[in-house]
Write a structure and sequence with these properties.
The protein is an alpha+beta fold. A four-stranded antiparallel β-sheet has the order 3-2-5-6, with no helix packed on it.
Length: 129
């Protein structure tokens, strides 16, 4: 009986030491271009605009990220969207990290790009002027 109890206690103590589990939510690595990006938490991203006149003049906006992903904005919001519900385009689901983006338009207008910081496990809103 004593030997079984000692073996059980020893196994209970050593088992956690032999296994390691990576917790995605505890990662502080925000480099989206690293090989670890698959392990980073992802977040919803919604690029949006409230400028209907710009859309009427410039046409649809295309957002292209430095990782090659892209999305189109085909409409506008009257104010800041309350969440990442995709009503008029502009939505992506990205690994936590830093990204740069460019903006092109179907009407040939010039709109400045920029950079964004995506936080995993939440909605990230970015207004395009």
């Amino acid at each position: 009986m004593k030997k079984t109890l000692v073996s059980a206690l020893l196994a209970a103590f050593l088992l956690p030491l032999g296994c390691s589990k990576h917790n995605d939510n505890s990662s502080n690595n925000t480099n989206s271009s690293s090989d670890n990006s698959a392990n980073l938490p992802k977040g919803g991203v919604l690029f949006w605009t409230s400028d209907n006149a710009e859309l009427n003049t410039c046409g649809a906006l295309t957002i292209v990220l430095n990782n090659g992903q892209q999305t189109n904005i085909t409409g506008y919001y009257n104010g800041a969207p309350p969440d990442c519900v995709n009503q008029v385009g502009g939505y992506l689901y990205l690994a936590q990290g830093l990204y740069t983006y460019t903006v092109t338009t179907s009407g040939g207008c010039s709109i400045a790009g920029g950079s964004i910081s995506v936080i995993g496990n939440q909605c990230n809103l970015f207004r395009i002027p």
